[in-house]
Amino acid sequence: MGVKLYKPYTKSRRFISVSDFSELTSKKPEKSLTRPLKKTGGRNARGVITSFHRGGRNKRKYRIIDFKRAKKGIDGKVVAIEYDPNRSAWIALIHYVDGDKRYIIAPGGLKEGDTVASGEQSEIKTGNSMPLRTIPSGSFIHNVELKPGGGGKIARAAGTIVQLLAKESGFAHLKMPSGEVRIVSLDCTATIGQVSNSDHSNISLGNAGRSRHLGRRPHVRGNAMNPVDHPHGGGEGKMGTGRNPVTPWGKPTKGHRTRKNKQTDKYIVKRR
């Protein structure tokens, strides 16, 4: 995959870059694996905005992804590598020998015509899914489960990767993309390889319009507001916050630790 740049024939074009989509082989999704996706605009059931700076995006359909890789012991053929508007990674359409069709997160290097499988007896190769106990130490994996049978939760975004460091006392030591080392049950499954579209982080939106198409509305700085609207507001000219950074409701932010689930601290070996 590569990043495409433009000649600066307008001011915003100077900063825009896009993917060349050279890895994709199909433009239309599999109809049986798509569902309507309703917009919320960041509002909850009562109409109150709970997720700010959202709304106005392009219409899209949701692709049903098989995060559990539940087709154990059945080979599947990669029919197409497709774009998914709901995630940064590419997805792969798999046709299994029993006639079933599934979408999976496409790992880097997976091509049309390749064969993938899942289960304990699967070969150690890119795109195959298996329990952590059968994966050699030092391997790079993605789409990792946190609980056996719960489906992949870790390393699903474009270019992300997890390293299996060691196995000990029924647990696997995993090095996360953040650098954190966490232990996960050896019965959890993972997929071999790195997630596709690794150049996603190098793409620059370049102008406000592309951001609006993705559903991101303008984000105004607190110190550009009035004191009635934000704790950082007010002052003469361009002022600093005047205090430790806080949210509009006065809660500490920007570096403040928000982790509340202390019960899972025992699974973290090394902090990021």
Q: Can you summarize the main beta sheet? A: 7 strands, antiparallel
The CATH homologous superfamily of the domain at 24-196 and 262-270 corresponds to: Nucleic acid-binding proteins
Q: Can you name the CATH architecture of the domain at 24-196 and 262-270? A: Beta Barrel
| Envelope shape | globular
The succession of helices and strands, N to C, reads EEEEEEEEEEEEEEEEHE
Our measurement of the CA-to-CA distance between the termini, rounded to an integer number of angstroms, reads: 30 Å
Number of strands: 17
Question: Could you tell me the strand content as a percent range?
Answer: 15-25%
**Given this structure, which CATH class of the domain at 24-196 and 262-270 is correct?**
Mainly Beta
How would you characterize the overall build of this protein?
This protein has one helix at 208-213; strands spanning 3-5, 17-19, 34-36, 61-63, 76-82, 91-96, 101-105, 115-116, 129-131, 140-142, 144-145, 152-154, 162-168, 171-175, 181-185, 189-192, 268-270. The longest helix has 6 residues, at 208-213. The protein has a domain at 24-196 and 262-270: Nucleic acid-binding proteins (OB fold (Dihydrolipoamide Acetyltransferase, E2P)), CATH 2.40.50.140. The chain is globular, with a radius of gyration of 22 Å. Helix content is 2%, strand content 25%. The chain is built from one helix and 17 strands. It has 272 residues and is mostly beta strands.
